[in-house]
């Protein structure tokens, strides 16, 4: 966290297929799922983005671990990748209790924990803050929405700019 705040994290940007990064992060959390199900929804083709796959994978692992911790057994977590005109977006959606609307603005703050998670009493509230730092270091944006299924559920969205042919990776981030 100190390195992020001090500008000491320099992403190694390369053309990245976000489906591969989401799949790798999903594999890393498989054993923690318990009785929850993790589905993936990807298109058959997608644009690449200039990103650091290792940093992005860690950001996604943090988000998926939160989704797991705050979702009840038997619930569904969905990891999706899609694109719009300028960006490729990752969506992580869960069926947990959700985040109170008043807390949404601060969910990415350091040491922020909304409530005690269902199956892990540990953690100091840095996962989402670190995820935000990694995503922003790559020129992306991250946001949370809740509730999304009536009165429950949370969706975390990560948006990264598509590569622009002929401009190069640095130009695509501006």
Tell me about this structure:
The chain is of the alpha+beta class and 174 residues long. It has one domain: Heat Shock Protein 90 (2-Layer Sandwich), CATH 3.30.565. The protein has five helices and seven strands. A five-stranded mixed β-sheet has the order 2-4-5-7-6. Strands 1-3 form a two-stranded antiparallel sheet. The longest helix is centred in the middle third of the chain and has 17 residues, at 53-69. The chain is globular, with a radius of gyration of 16 Å. Residues 116-124 and 168-174 have low confidence and may be disordered.
Cα(first) to Cα(last) distance is: 24 Å
Portion in strands: 15-25%
Oligomer: single chain
3D shape = globular
What's the total helix number? 5
Biggest beta sheet summary = 5 strands, mixed
Here the CATH topology equals Heat Shock Protein 90
**Average pLDDT score:** 84
Which CATH architecture would you pick?
Answer: 2-Layer Sandwich
Query: What fraction, in percent, of the residue positions are helical?
Result: 25-40%
The helix/strand order is HEHEEHEEHEEH
Poorly predicted runs are 116-124, 168-174
Class per helix and strand makeup: alpha+beta
Alpha-carbon Rg, integer:
16 Å
Q: Give the count of structural domains.
A: 1
**Total beta strand runs:** 7
CATH superfamily: Histidine kinase-like ATPase, C-terminal domain
Strand order of the largest sheet: 2-4-5-7-6
Question: Which CATH top level class fits?
Answer: Alpha Beta
């Amino acid at each position: 966290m100190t390195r992020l705040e001090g500008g000491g994290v320099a992403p190694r940007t390369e053309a990245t297929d976000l489906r591969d990064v989401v799949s790798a992060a999903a594999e890393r959390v498989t054993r923690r799922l318990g009785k929850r199900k993790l589905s993936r929804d990807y298109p058959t083709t997608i644009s690449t983005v200039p990103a650091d796959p290792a940093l992005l994978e860690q950001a996604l692992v943090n988000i998926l671990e939160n989704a797991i911790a705050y979702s009840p057994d038997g619930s569904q977590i969905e990891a999706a990748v899609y694109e719009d005109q300028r960006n490729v977006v990752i969506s992580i959606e869960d069926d947990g209790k959700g985040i109170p609307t008043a807390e949404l603005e601060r969910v990415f703050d350091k040491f922020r924990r909304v409530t005690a998670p269902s199956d892990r009493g540990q953690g100091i509230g840095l996962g989402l803050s670190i995820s935000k730092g990694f995503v922003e270091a790559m020129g992306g944006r991250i946001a949370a929405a809740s509730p999304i299924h009536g009165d429950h559920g949370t969706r975390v969205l990560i948006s990264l700019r598509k590569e622009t042919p002929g401009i190069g990776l640095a130009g695509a981030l501006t």
